[in-house]
Request: fold
Amino acid sequence: MSEPASISSGIAARYAQALFELTKSQDELDKLESDIQSLKDALAGSAEMNSLINSPVYSRDAQSKAILAIADKMKLSRAMRNTLGLMAAKRRLFVMPSFLERLSGLIAGDKGEVSAEVASAKALTKPQSDKLSKIISARVGKAVKINATVDADIIGGLVVKVGSKMIDTSIRSKLNSLQNVMKEVG
Reply:
């Protein structure tokens, strides 16, 4: 891992661990989980919010005021609001995506769950998602939470990531493999 990336992940990990322990001690992990999803959705759907957390153009004060206003508007928990305010004051909002992922991982670990990132060519139905969850759960020995995304570029099949393991059964990867084999032959 490159040095700046490891520094960023270290920053995100420290904030996530502190917020996780605080909310766990207050028995508010369910609210924290809801806050995380709300923030992930906001980041995914708003170029302005991404600009706010990543752009050095905004002053600490402007970032702080904006993120606190967003937290109030989204009705985030007091602990999450205060953490975001502190991150803004320390110019650390740029780690928010890593921070949210780390928090999700800590909560899942506390629940005895693992998270599986699943990409498919079209949206999975509820029965498909449930069946996939059972299959993965049997393999890893823990409850599995499926985070499904749609990626039309894979053409068909699935790409499943659980922790550091990845299973790629997509048609795109099979075509790429075939292309590589054809290059070796010719």
User: Anything to note?
Assistant: The chain has eight helices and four strands.
